[in-house]
Design goal:
heterodimer; A: about 325 residues; mainly alpha; MetI-like fold; 12 helices; about 0% strand; B: about 300 residues; elongated; transport (chain A); transmembrane (chain A); MetI-like_sf (chain A)
Chain lengths: ~325, ~300
């Protein structure tokens, strides 16, 4: 197992280098003069020149990348062009807000997705199964920004319920559960639908296997067959989906945070894009991607750990 | 007197035609796929209505006709879906937006699909270092969570339909590449491919004539599903103000404009949002049906 983890960690290095190259390239993909665009239309030639020097845009690309990487490994993601604050400080204050949003959404998605998927599989081809799968299809097809707006309309504006959710959150995440509930539902619904579909499909595959038939033939009760024998193996492929969904939530948080005015990394990214503050955009994209890569590593390792049949070597 | 014997000329066996015939037979059996497919045909017809040649003759209002005295009107007989903050007819704008939504969905998936299939088939067929390099690049693209990659691309290129299609295409490439590589790997090991090599067939001929037709099923299913996700991504970018810009009647952009008025006039966000749900749902249902028809093992 240790050997496998070390190998996976080593395999991650080229991916992380690739991610850093792509993020570094962002500023160089800007059509025209990057410094001029960042400085704004009315900027004087001196300001543009100063910005070019500050960002090191006059150096050869390889040198720029080398400098960028040496700063990144030391935890320096540059400074914001707009307020001059270190990007890492901006991210530090908002990181946990986004991480919490993604974690709560994952918990909600797993909880609802698993229950719905199991019920659907156990009662396959009944009205319960059909209804759950129709709802799941809707959940899968709903844009999270629309769902977020509809929830605000229903609960906060129309129903005059949960009015707190529209309050600004200067300190980041909501102070009460009421501020947490709607963004988590808006973000987690799509994931719940995907997990429900995956659980159902995986359960049905396992239920059809010989060892389940043997367990039933031995006279084991249906409850024990489903929950002790089938579920354990059916959950293994679902774990991979949960990891991928966590990543989707990190990306989706960009939209959800914007709708619910949550001061997380997603909102920071959008504000930075609107203000053309590219060091901040680079920083948030890099941190969110690295977090996703690490979560996938943990998922991969736990997948192998749970699925004893896979040869670790 | 000699009797003329009539013999039926045996129809030439065309494997491609047979494949599509079988696909059609399987699809017709799947009610959900028929409904999803029917809706997609309907969307295409609606998008034809939304063209400048037909629209003005069929629709009462122009998509950009401003009518401030009638702004934010609720749904009525005159304005089926109500009006927006400039008094523009939302129903008309939705009809015109359909063309744009389908165009972005189809084009970005076509571009992403072509590149993804090329990368996937080359990686799977040649293997070795070619496979390693291509798939590591795909891993890098997949390392960006959710819509973040598309967002980052649009943020540097600037918001426009063209740039949004580029962003959504790049976002679609790794999904195609992974699936096609996997399918190519399994086909590559079959004996008939070895036989073709022994007969001296070129790599290009083997790939185009023998590998690609055999990996078409997962490509078709993936393309249908990706259109749904491309529509969601594109509308999400426009909603954030980073994709298609107002006054273009793109549904995400319409919702972005309507957000500030949703308290008093919820219809300005409800109808464009519902249209996104219906279009994405239709493609998802059709994709599910296609998958069941093309891969009986998945039919659960």
């Amino acid at each position: 197992m240790t050997k496998y983890i070390v190998r996976r960690l080593l395999q991650m290095i080229p991916v992380l280098i690739g991610v850093s190259i792509l993020v570094f390239s962002l500023m160089h993909l800007i059509p025209g003069n990057a410094a001029q665009i960042m400085a704004g239309e009315g900027a004087s030639p001196e300001t543009i020149k100063q910005l070019e020097e500050k960002l090191g845009l006059n150096d050869p690309l390889v040198v720029q990348y080398g400098k960028y990487m040496s700063r990144v490994v030391q935890g320096d993601l540059g400074d914001s062009i707009r307020n001059g604050r270190p990007v890492i400080e901006e991210i530090k204050t908002r990181f946990w807000v986004t991480a919490e949003l993604a974690i709560y959404s994952t918990i909600l998605a797993v909880f609802i997705g698993l229950i719905a998927g199991i019920v659907s599989a156990v009662r396959h081809y009944t009205w319960a199964d059909v209804s759950i799968m129709i709802v799941a299809l809707f959940g899968l097809s709903m844009p999270n920004f629309w769902l977020g707006l509809v929830l605000i309309q229903w609960f906060a504006v129309g129903g005059d319920w949960l009015p707190e959710i529209l309050k600004m959150r200067p300190s980041g995440w909501g102070e009460s559960w009421r501020q947490v509930v709607l963004p988590v539902i808006a973000l987690g619904t799509g994931g719940a639908a995907i997990i429900a579909r995956m659980t159902r499909s995986s359960m049905l595959e396992v239920i059809g296997q010989d060892y389940i038939r043997t367990a039933r033939a031995k006279g084991v009760s249906e409850r024990v067959v489903i929950y002790r024998h089938a579920l354990k193996n059916a959950l293994i492929p679902v774990i991979t989906v949960v990891g991928l969904e966590f990543g989707a939530f990190l990306g989706g948080a960009v939209i959800t945070e914007t709708i619910f005015a949550i001061n997380g990394m997603g909102r920071l990214t959008i504000q930075a894009i609107q203000q053309r503050d590219f060091p901040v955009v680079q920083g948030t994209v890099l941190v969110l991607s690295m977090l996703f890569v690490f979560v996938n590593l943990i998922v991969d390792v736990s997948y192998r750990f749970l699925n004893k049949r896979i040869d670790l070597n | 007197m000699s009797k003329q014997v009539e013999t039926a000329t045996p129809a030439k066996y065309n494997p491609k035609l047979e494949y599509y015939k079988e696909l059609w037979r399987q699809l017709r059996k799947n009610k959900a796929a028929v409904v999803g497919g029917g809706f997609i045909v309907l969307f295409i017809l609606i998008s034809i209505i939304g063209t400048p040649w037909i629209g003005p003759h069929v629709l009462t209002y122009a998509p950009d006709a401003v009518d401030i005295p009638n702004k934010l009107q609720p749904p009525s007989a005159d304005h089926w879906f109500g009006t927006d903050n400039y008094g523009r007819d939302i129903f008309t704008r939705i009809i015109y937006g359909m063309k744009l939504t389908l165009f972005i969905g189809f084009t970005s998936v076509a571009i992403g699909g072509i590149f993804g299939v090329i990368f996937g088939v080359v990686a799977g067929y040649f293997g070795g270092w070619v496979d390693t390099i291509i798939m590591r690049i795909m891993d890098v693209l997949l390392a960006f969570p959710g819509i973040l990659l598309a967002l980052a691309i649009v943020s540097v290129l600037g918001g426009s339909i063209q740039n949004m299609i580029i962003a959504v295409s790049i976002y679609s490439v790794p999904a195609f590449a992974r699936i096609v590589r996997g399918s190519t790997l399994s086909v590559r090991k079959l004996e008939y491919i070895d036989a073709m090599k022994a007969l001296g067939a070129s790599h290009t001929r083997i790939i185009f004539k023998h590998i690609l037709p055999n990996v078409m099923s997962p490509i078709i299913v993936q393309a249908t599903m990706r259109i749904a996700s491309a529509v969601l991504t594109a509308s999400g970018l426009s909603f954030l103000g980073l994709g298609v810009k107002p006054p273009t009647p793109e549904w995400g952009a319409m919702m972005n404009e309507g957000r500030n008025f949703m308290r008093e006039s919820p219809h300005v966000i409800m109808f464009p949002g519902m249209m996104i749900v219906i279009v994405v749902l239709a493609f998802n249902i059709f994709g599910d049906g296609l998958r069941d028809a093309l891969d009986p093992k998945m039919k659960k």
